[in-house]
TrEMBL record:
Keywords, comma-separated and alphabetical: ATP-binding, Kinase, Magnesium, Metal-binding, Nucleotide-binding, Pyruvate, Transferase
Catalysed reactions, as listed in the record: pyruvate + phosphate + ATP = phosphoenolpyruvate + AMP + diphosphate + H(+)
Record organism: Micromonospora vinacea
Domain (Pyruvate phosphate dikinase AMP/ATP-binding): residue spans on this chain: 17-54, 62-285, 295-344
Protein known as: Pyruvate, phosphate dikinase
Domain of life: Bacteria
Cofactor: Mg(2+)
PEP-utilising enzyme mobile domain ranges (all copies): 415-494
Pfam family, one: PPDK_N
EC number: 2.7.9.1
EC top class named in words: transferase
């Protein structure tokens, strides 16, 4: 029979699939001999079974009871005992950390009898009653969906009756009254009494934690973080320890290094006389961890040494939750901690320096996504007004937007907004996703707002205590701002500015541009080292999509080793539109050839510049692709112009000629129409002119002492015969240009038929380049220009795909076409060069796929080049 329960002494950190991250790490800490309260983990498998059937799998409850007995023996206490009760926490914990997304219930086992017994165990009964009211509240909310406000209202009332400002000031009698009031609330909303039987509490709590996997906010979070929806959560049941037992007790969270910058030294918050999530929620202001050294030196020392051991064990930054009960330290959680992108690079390099990990491993600790975030701009502080106030810089970035005070307003907004809250909780998640940035008045770097924002790569400033938020206004530094007012927040410094502050490029971008040296800067030197190692490892080359010498030059600075796609159609825009018009309107061969003759030197000059910028490196020039009518005015505009002229009795002249041409060329589905290679076959001389321009430019570069390496790429080929015709024409042109170097000719693979007949095509093509935008559009049969607004939202919701296939390659469908084409192409021509030049070339997950598919290079926009380089290196190590 399947085993559903593992004691903490049975597991270890590698069992995350089964025990969830929290359970696996609690087991690991137990294994290390750290002070972890005893407990056990109910597996994710049990959760999946429960969610599938709606009932607890057979045998689970018996197993739970068995493990509970073991725990009781170890503790010398009985669960829910009236005199000296063992109490439990029931905690969610999935494979991937989802901070605050699912449920945890503390103090399970308390009832009307045991609360008295628990109270007698210490000098002061207060904490027992405080724990009991917390249980009714958490249990009510989690198990029976009693609205949180119902309890909050009673709590507020209790404070005002007692005339105190904070919860810890409530005395025993007041808490007893509160318990009474809470029980009433419970009955009102559930129609039953708060369950007094400890086992019933426990089983209901376990089921509720299972169900919390499917809470709306949890689903949303997983979608955002691309965590699979079918993993389920484990449930950890452990003995309670009490941080709310008085001033010698408390609870805290800490990081072994600064999760914002990566700087050395522990970092955390501690809250005296508090339980559970009080710190994480930022509900009361905690003190920095360093102050624990004065409050409880022995526990502080012990904590520091434990944190050091954890770092050694996990070989990475760890975060922890701990509780001190009457001077005794307990570890409640650890995991490899989330961190900002900058911290990820800095820490990876530090750990190499400390001899903890190899450069190889360091490369696996950073991602292309993180590098992308580091390439975001930041505020130009020289142009900024003095800040209104400064909060805790919790998640870097520079965001400007209109103030909104609640999640719904953020979701509804059409302009960029900053979500301004006292603190955030998981219900604010939709608003946090919608906002440019998050600003809170309470909580530190470990608050909910901070943790979630860092995970999403969103700007966040928290704990900005000077902010007075009151309904739909916020007062700071004597100024009152309202919803809709623009502010700028800096997640790197914590500064909050009035109005819109200008943004400037990132240091990492300036480093790549060669404007900043890496030396002496921890982040830039970490980036430099890891990029160098990535380049050393990578098997994929990274080329850039660049149409001009300026773009190519930048791409080269960013580390591109070629141009994988030069689109020639931009060379037909601007003033040159007229020349294209002449070509289209040409009525005979002479007129057409004249038009082409005027275009030739212009194209040649463009190519010469581009080849010079990429001297010594390959430049893949794609012959003209879009339908020619794109170079003419739109049909509606022309029709209106002609009608207007006729109405005035004026001769529309040239416009009428154009209109006739546009009508003649009109297509219902231009993207499936006369474009790409089809143009080359239908308009005599067009491709020949382009080939001649390329060859002449190369010859000129050679004459000037350069080393041009052009390649000619034919778009939209679906049949080998198309390519044969173009090749024959191109070869005769090339042979006729004196001084031209040998120039390779290849094709894009972007029509599904080309992928399937790649074996035939490879007989005529010296290289392939996957045009994955068109390939995706044609494989799925949806127009990439229309789908995003039309139905992708619904598709994402339904999980038909978890990310747009235009953003990240669809491995199963489009990917299979890619693999097929690679296989069939190389079978015919083993030295076939194969690359990709769609948007996917700069997408981290896709780069990995192209590596695995055996491509030679990816080509992407210049700004994505470093990201692709990093991912190419990671894919190969
Ligand atoms: P999350 O995953 O949202 O952080 P946790 O399961 O870690 O939720 O629990 C929430 C809070 O309850 C944490 O602050 C944790 O320290 C506290 N807590 C959990 N179990 C116990 C326990 N056995 N004794 C005391 N506090 C606990
Ligand atoms: Mg936790
Ligand atoms: Mg295309």
């Amino acid at each position: 029979m399947t085993r559903y329960v593992y004691d903490f002494t049975d597991g270890n950190k590698d069992l995350k699939d089964l025990l969830g991250g929290k359970g696996a790490n609690l087991a690991e800490m137990t294994l290390m001999g750290l002070p972890v309260p005893p407990g056990f983990t109910v597996t994710t498998e049990a959760c999946r079974a429960y969610l599938r059937t709606g009932t607890m799998p057979a045998g689970l409850l018996t197993e739970v009871q068995h493990h509970l007995r073991l725990m009781q023996n170890r503790m010398g206490k009985t669960f829910g005992d009236a005199a000296d009760p063992l109490l439990l926490s029931v905690r969610s914990g999935a494979k991937f950390s989802m901070p605050g997304m699912m449920e945890t219930i503390l103090d399970i086992g308390l009832n009307d009898a045991s609360v008295v017994g628990l109270g007698r165990q210490s000098a002061d009964q207060r904490f027992a009653w405080d724990s009991y009211r917390r249980l009714i509240q958490m249990f009510g909310k989690t198990v029976f969906d009693v609205p949180g406000e119902a309890f909050e209202e009673e709590l507020t009332a209790a404070r005002s009756i007692a005339g105190v400002a904070t919860d810890p000031e409530l005395g025993t009698t007041q808490l007893q009254d509160l318990v009474h009031a809470y029980k009433k609330v419970f009955h009102q909303h559930t129609g039953r009494d708060f369950p007094q039987a400890p086992h019933e509490q426990l089983f209901l709590a376990i089921a509720a934690v299972f169900r919390s996997w499917n809470a709306e906010r949890a689903i949303l979070y997983r979608r955002q973080e691309r965590i699979p929806q079918d993993l389920g959560t484990a449930v950890n049941v452990m003995a309670m320890v009490f941080g709310n037992r008085g001033e010698n007790s408390g609870t805290g969270v800490a990081f072994t290094r600064d999760p914002a910058t990566g700087r050395h030294g522990v970092y955390g918050d501690y809250l005296r006389n508090a339980q559970g999530e009080d710190v994480v929620a930022g509900i009361r202001n905690a003190v920095p961890l360093a102050q624990l050294a004065a409050i409880d030196p022995a526990s502080h020392r012990q904590l520091l040494s434990i944190m050091q051991r954890l770092e050694q064990r996990y070989r990475d930054l760890c975060d922890i939750e701990f509780t001190i009960e009457n001077g005794r330290l307990w570890m409640l959680q650890t995991r490899v901690g989330k961190r900002t992108p900058a911290a990820a690079f800095v820490i990876a390099a530090q750990l190499v320096d400390e001899g903890r990990i190899t450069l190889h491993e360091a490369l696996q600790r950073v991602t292309g996504e993180q590098l992308a975030q580091l390439m975001f701009p930041s505020f130009d502080t020289t142009a900024a007004p003095p800040p209104l106030t400064t909060g805790v810089p919790a998640s870097p970035g520079a965001s400007v937007g209109a103030i909104v005070f609640d999640s719904a307003a953020a979701v509804a907004a059409t302009e960029p907004v900053i979500l301004v809250r006292r603190e955030t909780n998981p219900d604010d998640l939709p608003g946090m996703i919608a906002a440019q940035g998050i600003l809170t008045s309470r909580g530190g770097k470990t608050s909910h707002a901070a943790v979630v924002a860092r995970g999403m790569g969103k700007t966040c400033v928290c704990g900005t205590e000077e902010l007075r938020i009151d309904g739909d206004a916020v007062t700071v530094a004597g100024r009152t701002l309202h919803a809709g007012d623009i502010i700028s927040i800096d997640g790197t410094t914590g500064n909050v500015y009035p109005g819109s502050v200008a943004v400037r490029p990132s240091a990492v971008v300036r480093y790549f541009e060669g404007e900043l040296a890496a030396h002496g800067d921890p982040l830039l030197s970490a980036v430099e080292r890891l990029m160098a190692h990535a380049d050393h490892q990578a098997r994929l080359d990274v080329h850039a999509n660049a149409d001009t010498a300026v773009d190519a030059t930048r791409a080269r600075r960013f580390g591109a080793t070629g141009v994988g796609l030069c689109r020639t159609e931009h060379m037909f825009l601007g003033d040159r539109r007229r020349l294209v018009e002449r070509l289209i309107l040409a009525e005979d061969a002479t007129a057409r050839s004249e038009a082409l003759q005027t275009l030739l030197p212009l194209q040649r000059a463009d190519f010469e510049e581009l080849f010079a910028a990429m001297d010594g490196l390959p430049v893949t020039v794609r012959l003209i692709d879009p339908p020619l009518h794109e170079f003419l005015p739109p049909l509606e505009e022309l029709t209106a112009r002609v009608a207007h002229a006729e109405a005035l009795g004026v001769d529309p002249g040239h416009d009428r000629t154009l209109l006739t041409a546009v009508r003649r060329m009109h297509e219902q589905n231009p993207m499936l129409g006369l474009r790409g290679v089809r143009l080359g076959l239908v308009i005599p001389g067009l491709f020949a002119m382009q080939v001649r321009a390329i060859a002449q430019a190369a010859a000129a570069r050679i004459a000037a002492g350069g080393d041009p390496q052009p390649e000619i790429m034919v778009p939209l080929v679906g049949a080998v015969q198309e390519l044969e015709t173009v090749r024959a024409e191109a070869e005769s042109v090339l042979a006729s240009v004196p001084g031209a170097p040998p120039i390779r000719l290849g094709t894009m693979i972007e029509v599904p038929r080309a992928a399937l007949t790649a074996g035939q095509i490879a007989g005529v093509a010296e290289f392939f380049s996957f045009g994955t935008n068109d390939l995706t559009q044609m494989a799925w049969g949806f127009s990439r220009d229309d789908v995003e607004g039309a139905f992708f939202g619904r598709y994402l919701e339904l999980g038909i795909f978890s990310v747009s296939p235009f953003e990240s390659i669809d491995r199963d469908g489009v990917g299979e076409l890619v693999r097929t084409a690679v296989r069939r192409g190389r079978a015919i021509r083993p030295d076939l060069t194969i690359g990709v030049c769609g948007e996917h070339g700069g997408d981290p997950a896709s780069v990995r796929f192209f590596h695995d598919a055996g491509l030679d290079y990816v080509s992407c926009s210049p700004f994505r080049v470093p990201i692709a380089r990093l991912e190419a290196g990671r894919a190969a190590s």
